[in-house]
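hey so i finally got around to running the thing on that chain from the lab meeting. sorry it took forever, my laptop kept dying and i had to restart like 3 times. anyway pasting the input first so we r on the same page abt which one it is
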Amino acid sequence: MFKKKIDLFKLFGFTVSVDASWLIILFLVVWSLAKGLFPYYYPELPERTYWFMGIIGAIGLFVSIIIHEFSHSYVARINGLRISEITLFIFGGVARMKEEPGSAKVEFRMAIAGPIASVALSLLFAGLYLLSNSLGWSTPTTAILGYLSGINMLLAVFNMIPAFPTDGGRILRSILWWKTGDIYLATKIASRVSIAFSFAIVFIGFLDMAGGNFIGGLWWILIGTFLFNAANMSYQNILIERSLKGKTVRDFMNPNPIIVPSDITLREFIEKYVYRYHYKMFPVMDDGRVLGIITAKNIKTVPRTEWDNRLVREFIQRAGPENSIEPDTDIKTCLSKMERTGLTRLLVMEDGKLVGIVTLKDLLEYMALKMELEE
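ok and heres what got predicted. didnt touch it at all, straight out
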């Protein structure tokens, strides 16, 4: 989740993205509306009308989810929380916070805002549905308004399931946090409740499919799988945050990195450095001065026949903000930078001098070992 995202737009300072899997889910929503829901309740309409209704209904659901997530983000912002982005799924979304809420009360307020917004939308569309009936609007218009009223109420109910990280799960965690005073214990319990719910939902899906309701069963299975993965990820994220709390790049950097001179050939570099140390990036220095970095990616397009004639200095990538970091930087900021740039190794620079290398591999090994021993 969140590894392949498509940025859509910025609104009120928030970046709105969709997970790449949303494109598949979007088709399933349109298909289930056009081939299942609307033909069942409104028979004898033309086939293309059902597909048009399915597309408009899916767009309406998408907009409703945006409003649901923006309500979370707005409450988070007025309570001093920074929201980095909003990532949407067709049956939900996640407002990604740069830090956990400071108190159980703040988390409760933020979590409850989404369901309240969905209930408000449901009542709004219900009113429009009644108005449509009384004024004799077209059948497709009335049907779409009725669907949007129902789906927003369903969205509110679904999000109130006490399965972390849904809104109901966050409300459950806020209550547990308030009772125990321990956010980590509260997250652990809420995540386990979520996993139990996810298994139950998947089981219901298989029963539905066995009973002949293939589309309905498929939706239950998708939702259950999403909850299972999200609960595991949420708990792992908070464990990682605890294990890295107060840590800086200096705590993890290697102060004696392998240095590559700029005047050697590519063959020497590959055989004496890449094949020997198995690193993807090396700092390049001459006379104690950092020239930049060289990576396997920089040279992979060079034909093997030219390795003896080309020098490392031709392929240096200059050291800069994208591939370097200061030693006193918070380690979570370092991880975010690695995620954003795709680099697994960063130069550690202090006062213009190279003081070490920090690697994603070392960070992951530390986190895995700490969680194995302490959890």
